[in-house]
Every structure is written in C-alpha cells, then in structure tokens.
Amino acid sequence: MPRLLLTITSVLLTLAIGEGALRLWSFRGVERALRSRSADGKELSARRVLCVGDSYTFGVHYRAEESYPGRLEQWLGCGGGERWSVINAGIPAQNSAQVAASLPELLEAHAPQAVVVLVGYNNRWNMASPGKKRRAALWFEDLILVRLVRIVLAREPGEDRLREFRPDRVTVVVGGAEQSIEVNKTLDRAGDEAVLVSCKGDLAIIVELCRARSCAAILCTYPSPEAGYHSPSQAAREVALELGSPLVDFRELFAQGLKTHPYQHLLIPGDRHPTEAGYFWMARAVGSALVAARLTEDSVQRAALPEVLYPATLFCDEKRILQVTGPPGSSFRALVAESSEPPQSIGFRVLPLADDEVFRKFRDHESLAGKLDAEGRASVALPAELLSFNLRAALVVLHDQQVAAPDLRIRAIAGPVAVPVR
Predict the structure, then answer these.
(1) Helices of type H across 78-214
(2) Does residue 345 share a domain with residue 260?
(3) Nearest to residue 120, comparing CAs of 34, 231, 262?
(4) Residue 174 domain-assigned (yes or no)
(5) Please, which pLDDT band fits residue 37 given cuts at 50, 70 and 90?
(6) In this structure, are 58 and 182 located in the same domain?
(7) What contacts 24+ positions apart, CB below 8 Å, involve 187-196?
(8) I want to staple 44 with a disulfide (CB 3.0 to 4.6 A). Which of 85, 174, 188, 247 is the partner?
C-alpha cells in the first residue's frame, strides 16, 4: 500500500511539474503549431478563414473538399498569390447560441483573419443552450496536458468527419480535433419572430467577438428559397446593416440563379441543402466578399475552377463494357432497360430508363454494382444474358452518407447511353 501511494504521488507530482512547465513555456504558441496542419497533413497557411455554422457549412451529404469551405480554399488557391487556409467548423444541427459560445475557443485556436457565419435556421427546433459546466469540468478541460493529449490523439477526418449523429448529440472533426454539441429537439417549433430575435442577439455577439480579435466577421443568409429560412436570413441582413459588417446574400444569389437553372442543379429537392454545384456558388460568393473587403487579391484564374469536383460520367465502349467515373471510393449501380421512355420517378429524382422487364430483372444484379477506385473509375461488364438485347444504360452514384429517403441517397445520375448488340 505505501508503495502504491508513493507511485500515485510521483505520477501526480510529475504531471503537476509538466503542467507548470508548459504554462511557463507559453503553451498558446505550441498549441497553434500543433493545430497548424490540416486534416490531410498539409501545413496550414498563416492567413486563415474560419467558417462557422450548421450543416450548410459542414457540407452535409458531400465530402470535406466539396463543402463551401473546401471549395473556398480551392478558389483562393487559384489566385497564384498568398495562400489561404479555410477551417470548416460547421456542425449539423447547431444553433446560433452554440456558435457564439464556441467561437472564442475557435478564434484562440486558429487565429483567423476572417470568420464566415451562416447560422440560425436550427434556432427553430434545437433549443439546446451551451449551458454552464461544473467548475471541476472546466478546470480539467483547461489543463494544458489534457488539451495537448486531445490534439495529439485526434484522428484524421477522412471519410468519417461526421463522427456521431444522434438525436441528442452531434460530433464532428474541426481542424483535426473533435467538437461536439448537444441537441434538444422540441416539437413546439419557435416562430419567425422568436428566431429573428434570437439570431440577431447571437450574431451581434459573434461580430463583437471577431472585432475584439481584429478579424473580419462576414455574415451570410441561407441559399434555400423556402419560407422557413427567411427569419435567420433577415437577422443576418439586419445585423450586418446595423453593425457595418460585410454580408454575403446567398438567398438573393440563389433566387437569381433559380431563374435560369433548375432547382436540382443548385439544391437537393426535398432536402433543401445545396448540391455540389450549389456549394461552389457559395464559395465563389464568399471569395468575392473577401476580395471586396480587401483581404485577398482578385484573379481571373479563378474562373477556370469547375463547379463540380467529381462529375459522374457513363460511357459504353466497343466491347459493351460500361466505363464509369465519379467520386473516388463511392458506391454506384449501373441500371439497364430496353428503352429510356417513359423515364421513372424516384422521389424527387428522375431515372432516364423505362420500367420494363429487363430493368426489373436486372435492377438488383450484383455484377452491376460496385465502388469506384481511388481515381474515381470503374469498369462494368454486362451479364452474358444481356448480350442479345439492344439496351439503354444509366449510372446512379450514391452519397457517402446514407439516409432513409431513396432519392436523397442518390448523389448523381448519368446517362442514358446506348448499348448496342455485339
């Protein structure tokens, strides 16, 4: 027993000495250095943009590089001048109070030159508040050794940057470290006026926090045109006007875009989140705001950046082998029918193949499904039973994050293409 007590005392004393040494050594600079690499191991630029908000910032349904923060970093990198790093701190289901509460720590950790804020819609249903932690919990979390261990042991995001999505909690990876929020879903949704008031109060706090750290706060409206997004968007407009903060009006941008583009080009029908092209539009608008705020230089080279990072394509070669492309590692399914008319409806999506006997027989054939390789390519040989048919083929690429609604599982549809008899 005395030996065990001596061992415990020695360990505690060693930890106390280590904690004291780190505090004397000014751990803030060390912490920033440890966080100065992105999730893929690349060193982050000294000039940084921090994007905060909910699923619209996180880039729900899409990969990190296809979210608007991911596309913004690509857009900024096309200028050929000073390189920017963009940190995606969006968390699905997050409300504006939670963003305001977490912002001081994010500002301290990442020291950005600009903060882009898109939040407020979830104020309508998520009533969780940041809350006050017990003094012991706060003391423990503030220990430098605890923060150091969390940074060192943080896993890379990869494909699982959305670590946890429960009815009461959401956990994601932000800047190489996990961040969680509580979710308190209520059946009695807040009205428009309540959402407007709560959003305005929190956005004003966010702007002042940014100004205290000498970084620009860029407020945003929601791109979705539905009525439920009006109040948080109006809050962003009013706070930007009252406090003289830059505004990126996604709502107006998409309203104009929807006059010449179909809804499904910019937004996912029934889901209302942006498509990959929609996220690119958002990134381009934020980039223009950074230029207008004289935070970065403009460059005509950025016009060459493609809207869609991983286009889905389908081609049938002379051997009747289907050649498909899309996002690396994504699941896909090739479908065949004798005709492309009349096309089928899958929820809000349209599959350009007829629901004929061939389609029904081979709809779930295992040889027609697979995963794209590391370069986003795959070859599909048609079953021998189909060699005597004159066919039409289509490609369906699925999202990485699976959801219940069949049409929302579909990321992209390509085709139809003719598959002539050999």
Answers:
(1) 96-110, 135-142, 144-153, 192-212
(2) no
(3) 231
(4) yes
(5) low
(6) yes
(7) 189/124, 189/125, 190/123, 190/124, 190/125, 190/127, 192/230, 192/231, 193/231, 194/123, 195/120, 195/123, 195/124, 195/231, 195/232, 195/235, 196/231, 196/232, 196/234, 196/235
(8) 85
Average pLDDT of span 265-283:
92
**CATH number for 340:** 2.60.40
Output the six-digit token pair for 70.
Answer: 């991911």
pLDDT tens, position by position, 149-207: 444 444 444 446 777 778 888 888 876 777 888 888 877 788 989 999 999 999 999 99
**Are residues 276 and 330 located together in one domain of the fold?**
no
253 with 331, same domain? no
Q: How high is the mean pLDDT of the chain?
A: 83
Provide, rounded to the nearest whole percent, the portion of the chain with pLDDT above 70.
Answer: 78
For the residues 97-119, what does the mean pLDDT come to? 94
Q: Tell me the C-alpha distance between 178 and 141, whole Å.
A: 14
Residue at 4 is within a domain: no
Residue 106 lies in a domain: yes
Domain boundary among 274, 304, 334: 304
* Token pair of 277 as six digits: 């092209």
At residue 362, the pLDDT reads 92
Residues 286 and 345 in one domain: no
How remote is the C-alpha of 143 from its chain's centroid? 31
Q: Which domain holds residue 241?
A: 16-304
How many structural domains comprise the chain?
Answer: 2
Q: What is the pLDDT of residue 136?
A: 42
Q: Is 148 exposed, middle or buried (0-12, 13-18, 19+ CB in 10 A)?
A: middle
The C-alpha atoms of residue 360 and residue 387 are separated, in whole angstroms, by 17
For residue 128, what pLDDT is reported? 87
Same domain flag for 125 and 247: yes
Phi (first) and psi of residue 182, to 5 degrees: -85, 150
Which pLDDT score is estimated for 80? 64
Residue type (1 letter), 25? W
- The per-residue pLDDT for 147 is 47
Instruction: Tell me the average pLDDT across 372-395.
Output: 90
Task: Specify the CATH number for the domain of residue 213.
Answer: 3.40.50.1110
- Residue 166: strand pairing partners: none
Cβ(88)–Cβ(162) below 8 Å: no
Amino acid at site 132? K
> Smallest Cα–Cα separation from 217: which of 293, 316, 109, 324?
293
- From CA 231, how far away is CA 290, in angstroms rounded? 25
| Residue 49, SS3 per DSSP | strand
Same domain, 207 and 319: no
